[in-house]
Amino acid sequence: MKFFYCEQITDSPAFLSRDESYHCFKVLRMRKGASILVTDGKGNAAEAIILNCHPEKTELQISRHIQLNSDPFYRLHIAISPLKNTDRFEWFAEKATELGVNEITPLICSRTEKKSVNTERLKKNVLAALKQSMRCILPEVHPPTEFKDFINQQSIGGVKFMCTQGADSSIQSILKNQNKITVLIGPEGDFTDEELAMAMKSGFRAANLGTTRLRTETAGIYICAAAKTLLSAP
Question: Chain-wide mean pLDDT for the chain?
C-alpha cells in the first residue's frame, strides 16, 4: 500500500494536506475506495480508506491502527555545519532520515562558508524520505543556530560529542548503550580550537571517525549508520 503523511489520524474522518492530496490524486491517480497507509510522524500509523479524493483535501476513513516497528528506540540529534553545495546538504538530510535521525540542526561555525539554509525545503526533503523509508517519526528540522548558542542549550541531555580528527575516543565506544545522543559535525575546515574548548567546557566529548578524513555530509551519514548498527535492538 502507498504510504502518506497525515497530521491527525486519531479520529475519522482524517484529511491529507494539500501537498499530500495533490500527490495522491494527481500523481498516483488514486481514487475513492483505495486503501493506503498513513502516519502522523509521531510514531503512530494506520490503514485508511479514501472516502473522497480531491487534489486539495483528500478525506480518509481510518480503518485500523497498526504498528510498523520501523523506528529505533534511541534519539539522535545531529547538529551539522551547512555546506556550500546545497544539494549535498539536502542529500545528507534525506539519507539521515532514512537511517533514523530524530533532529537536524544546521550549525553555524566560525568556518562555515554558507550560513543560510532553506529550512522549508529541507523539511520537504525530510518528509519525502520519511515516506520512502516508511518511518513513523518525522525528524525535526531546526533553524540555523550559532555554535555558541547551540552548545549552551540547557535542553541537551544524554551523551554529547563532537567529531574531530585526532581525538582519542572512537565513535563506537561513545555510542555504546546510549539512548539519547547529540552530535556536532563541523565544516570542511573542522572546528576551531576555540570551538573545541568551548564545547568540551559544556560537556561535549571529542570522538574520531576512523583513520580517513570524511566530508561533512559523509560524517553525518557515518554517525547515523553507526548508531543504527550499534544501538538497534536484536
Answer: 91
